[in-house]
């Protein structure tokens, strides 16, 4: 048994909070612990922020967030139809920022990797980017 | 409609920034601009980020702190962080922010 949801919203920065809240609300009945809930909220925030500020930059467009729950495993995908990422490997490097003039931390993908079990980035220049993440609840994580 | 994103307390050359409950890309855009405005017009030597009210932060907050820290250091000033919860502490540690900050209480982080 699995359950799915999909939300489409405009690439406005105040929707970063909306996406985090929606993702948290969708998984709440699985009784995640505080850390798991925060991990999901942070990862969603990073993915959606990337879509808005890097994917669409000065333009506007739609961001699609889809989630699926299978047992205790949560799948999240965040998609934009923005400018795409030419070099995904470089973009995923810690401290690398696609917008250094904006003085950003370059830690977005690092945080997604740190807080989720799996992270896949698919992108095509001038077509868009999809970030897929997976996390299983109830697993112990040690740093 | 002017929403307030952070609260600022200026005491001599010390600027304390009480950060909002959600420190993300949306709120940081405004907070960064406001802090830089202070740094431009006031002789700030100590910049203090207070996380007492903050429940959520992501990497945009890290970027904002690094950006402001760079400016304050250029003016030979210092930055410190206070009031952060366990979750925020973990994010700050993960991104190496404590190496840029001076510790006010001298506690282990």
Helix-strand blueprint:
The complex is a heterodimer of chains A (143) and B (109).
Chain A lengths: L1 E9 L4 H13 L6 H22 L6 E9 L2 E8 L7 H4 L16 H8 L2 E7 L3 E9 L7
Antiparallel strand pairs in A: 1-2, 2-3, 3-5, 4-5
Helix pairs in contact in A: 1-2, 2-4
Chain B lengths: L6 E5 L2 E5 L3 E2 L1 H17 L4 E5 L5 E2 L1 H16 L3 E5 L3 H9 L15
Parallel strand pairs in B: 2-4, 3-5, 4-6
Antiparallel strand pairs in B: 1-2
Helix pairs in contact in B: 1-2
The stretches of 5 or more residues of chain A where confidence is low (pLDDT under 50) are: none
Q: Helical amount among residues of chain A, as a percent range?
A: 25-40%
Strand order across the largest sheet of chain A: 1-2-3-5-4
Mean pLDDT of chain B: 91
SS summary, helix count of chain A:
4
Approximate strand percentage of chain A: 25-35%
Shape type of chain A: globular
Helix and strand succession of chain B?
A: EEEHEEHEH
The largest pleated sheet of chain A is described as: 5 strands, antiparallel
Radius of gyration based on Cα positions of chain B: 13 Å
Largest interface: A-B, 25 and 19 residues
Q: How much helix is in the residues of chain B?
A: 25-40%
| Helix/strand/pairing category of chain A | alpha+beta
